[in-house]
Amino acid sequence: MELETYRNFIGGQWTNGTAKAVFEVMNPATEEVIASVPNATSDDVRAAIDAAAAVQAKWADSLAAERATILRDAARLMRERAEHLAHTMTLEEGKPLAEARGEVNYAASFFDWFAEEAPRVYGDTIPSSSRDKRIVVLKQPVGITAAITPWNFPAAMITRKLGPALAAGCTMIVKPSELTPLSALEIARILEEVGLPQGVLSVVCGTEAKDLVKVIMDDFRVRKVSFTGSTEVGKILMRQAADTMKRVSLELGGHAPFIVFDDADLESAIQQAVLCKMRGMGETCVSANRFYVQRSVYDTFARQLAERMGQLSVGNGLQAGHAVGPLIERAGLAKVERHVADAVAKGAKVLVGGRRVGETGYFFEPTVLTDVDHSMLIAQEETFGPVAAVIPFDTEEEVIQQANSTPYGLASYFFTRDVSRVFRLAEKLEYGIIGANDGMPSTAQAPFGGIKSSGLGREGSMYGIQEYLDIKYLSLGGIQS
Question: Could you tell me which of 434, 436, 441, 442 has the C-alpha nearest to residue 422?
Fold first, then answer.
């Protein structure tokens, strides 16, 4: 195939910047190079911040209705170009085309949602304790912001951060993963076409992530950073943010439990389990990792889950009929293989799958393991792959303790017909996102985020735009009554 050449989008210009070299983007299904991108330097990030600083005041002063129109137009254009965007995403990230189309629509929904939130940034008036004073609360954009995004949702992770930033009146520098920069650049092209002013958005791509991000973290003009990625990196960014007192939003690692009680609708639970586990080849931070199943239905659930997983076709996402694509890179494949090998060595049984598929590309069979216990790596760490570890439990109290026995607190799921139990678990599970009889709870209008070591802040929903607003308190004296 013909190699595509991209450029970075810095200060409203498509440019090589100061890059002396390019980096290559690879298709994880074929291990072929599909595109090249200038390998940005620290000076390119500084240029992006300078460009944002030059227009921040004017963008913040723009009408909310004007910002909303740009976001709505961008969402419309994303949907019109859904096939091209999905094809690009499948090439660089591997997910099947049908799933990539779904992500494009999901990504566009954040532009739609925050287009509606832009004119709803309301202040407050507060009753004063003095007759001659009035108290007014103003909400204004924080200023220049930055987004550091992962490879597993190369479009949605950007729009979920960029949408509220633009709606609030903030400029933004996006540093996408070097594994999947093309979707980010395509989104920048769309925003340019719908009239986003120059300098409001820059997309800076490069392989030296530490150097590029350090410029962002060291620059006092950048007042807010949103990061999605590992907990280890999130902690580093949080420490770095302290020196310039930046606001941070951190959506970090997960280790999601999926709990099935014996009174659950088993057919629905199995269907949702496959969706929750296999979305994005299991390489999402909200993918179910530990499947806790009450003992009386354990064997039935495990057998039927294995049957469903075994029916999923694995292959190149651009080819029709494949429901499961490749893992993103060789290191991810090696981690999945290590987790399965460790579990089997410690007594787990493989009901289906358990092996790499082919010699080219990073494919792994959808896998179900039984007789899993908490001594195994797969019960202790996030696998980030297409492996379901099924663990029996007896009582509600026991499974709550097991589900919470992790430093992570992003997403959890449980299935039951008992309404009282729904509320008990919703209150007792230590997770920011809880799916009750729902394995796919993510949506633009709901607050997405974790607790404990899974992060800080919320994205999406009416709460998402608050992350990009400063609160000012005006005390007005001298009022004659």
Answer: 436
Backbone angles phi, psi at 173, to 5 degrees: -110, 125
pLDDT recorded at residue 475: 97
CA distance 267 to 260: 11
Bridge partners, 134 (sequence order): 476
Domains and CATH numbers, the chain: 4-252+454-473 (3.40.605.10), 256-443 (3.40.309.10)
Through-space distance between the first and last CA atoms of the chain, rounded to whole angstroms:
77
The predicted pLDDT at position 2 comes to 67
Q: What is the structure's pLDDT at 50? A: 98
3-state secondary structure of 434: strand
Return the structure tokens found at 429. Answer: 């599970």
- The pLDDT, as a whole number, for residue 481 is 77
Q: Using CA atoms, how far apart are residues 175 and 203, in angstroms rounded to an integer?
A: 6
Distance CA 111, CA 445 (A): 11
Beta carbons of 270 and 263 less than 8 angstroms apart: no
- Please tell me the pTM assigned to this model: 0.96
Q: Which residues have C-beta within 8 Å of that of residue 131, sequence separation ≥ 6? A: 479, 481
Whose tokens are 């099924």? That residue is 390
Q: How many CB atoms lie within 10 A of CB 96?
A: 26
Integer Cα distance of 415 and 422 in angstroms: 9
Q: For residues 316 and 29, is the Cβ–Cβ distance under 8 A? A: yes
| β-strand partners of 189 | none
Q: Which residues of the chain have pLDDT under 50?
A: none
CA distance 426 to 481: 50
Catalytic residues: 251, 285
Q: How far is CA 147 from the centre of its chain?
A: 11
Euclidean distance between CA atoms 390 and 448, whole angstroms:
26
As a whole number of angstroms, the distance between CA 8 and CA 475 comes to 45
Torsions phi, psi for 293 (to 5 deg): -130, 130
What whole-number distance in Å separates Cα of residue 452 and Cα of residue 431? 8
pLDDT in tens, 434-475: 999 999 999 999 999 999 999 999 999 999 999 999 999 999
Entry field: residues in the chain: 481
